[in-house]
Amino acid sequence: MKIFIVIPAYNEENKIGKVVKELITAGYKNVVVIDDGSKDNTFKVAKSAGAITLRHVINRGQGAGLQTGITYALNNGAGIIVTYDADGQHSKNDLPAIIKPVRLGQVDAALGSRFRKTDSNTPPIRKLFLKGGALLFRIFYGVNLSDSHNGFRALSRNAAKKINITSDDMAHASEIIDEISRKNIKYVEVPVTITYTDYSLAKGQNTLNGFKILWRMLLDQLLK
Questions:
Q1: Are 60 and 138 in contact (CB under 8 A)?
Q2: What does the DSSP assignment read for 135-195?
Q3: 3-class SS of residue 94
Q4: Higher pLDDT, 100 or 129
Q5: Over the stretch 146-197, which tens digit does the pLDDT of each residue have?
Q6: Mutual orientation of helices 172-182 and 62-75 as an angle, nearest 10°?
Q7: Tens digits of per-residue pLDDT, 33-72?
Q8: Could you give the CA distance from residue 10 to residue 34 in angstroms, rounded to a whole number?
Q9: Which residue segments constitute the domains of the chain, with CATH numbers given?
């Protein structure tokens, strides 16, 4: 069963090389980096590190990067697709655990959760946003999660073919959960470590923008 790791990246020349090398050294050969219209050397650094490199001519957003990478992986025989961040927040050591339930056929989607580990060091405001999002997911989609916007996930080929990401921006995370609910994709949460650094916090989603996405999700549900 071929495993592809899909990494959307925008202006990540400082981290992407290390992320790719760690994954390849750990035995994951099909590492796909989507350079989402970066203005720096992200594409060159990722390619030099050994990644399969794709490129958007303009910056479209993380959702678009994921869809490009997932489509490529499916077209090249992926059995399992893992989505992974470019900024060094995720740990390669969590990969066996998040892949296992999909590989064994127990579920079609394994979703990472930073809150199922007791050592989570999530900043308080971000924790409030993520927990609030999880509550809305439960209310609107009937999906019981502890972490609402975690980019670390594993999808079976079947799930990846069913999930259609149309949101180019960070709203894709909510869209994926909506797709899991509407298409009855069996899922499980898996504990993962998120390592916060000044770099990752600066590069990550702005909390205010996160609340805007939740508000948009609320409006979408009310207008349905």
A1: no
A2: HHHHHHH----S-S----EEEEHHHHHH------STTHHHHHHHHHHHTT--EEEEE----
A3: helix
A4: 100
A5: 998 899 999 999 999 999 999 878 788 889 999 999 999 999 999 999 988 7
A6: 50
A7: 999 999 999 999 999 999 999 999 999 999 999 999 999 9
A8: 8
A9: 3-122+149-202 (3.90.550.10)
